[in-house]
Amino acid sequence: MSSKEDIRVRDVMHHGYCLVDGLTTVADAIKLMHQENAHALIINKRDEHDEYGLVLVSDIAKKVMAPNRAPDRVNVYEIMSKPVLGVKPEMQLRFCARMFHQFGLTIAPVIDASGEILGLVNYDDLVLRGLAAD
Fold this sequence. Notes:
By secondary structure, this protein is of the alpha+beta class. It has helices spanning 9-12, 26-36, 57-65, 93-103, 123-131; strands spanning 17-20, 40-43, 53-56, 107-111, 117-122. The chain has one domain (4-131): Roll (CBS-domain). The chain is built from 5 helices and 5 strands. The strands form 2 sheets. Strands 1-2-3 form a 3-stranded mixed sheet. Strand 1 (17-20), helix 2 and strand 2 (40-43) form a beta-alpha-beta unit. Helix 4 (93-103) packs antiparallel against helix 5. The radius of gyration is 16 Å and the shape is globular. The termini are close together.
């Protein structure tokens, strides 16, 4: 049996996201998120020198719903956080939790050495799938 230190981010990450272009409207993004049962949007890089962006459901609520903006007239690039802090799939869960705490994160993309997104990790994953794992 492995110890808790052997559990890595790759072991608990999930795939509840959609990868979209920055010009996608919030209305289209919501439809896609609903279809894919996703809880986050990762905004794809425009080119190899660009960085990924991130939009959470809470971003849509705060930046589109609350100010009464029309979702079909707002592009996701307008409300995304960019650049996002990613974590390596090999990172131990305790270091990921420390990083979340130090930088005020609740979610982060898991990015491999080649720069490709493998999944997402959040506090639920760290605690419920990591710390509480048998």
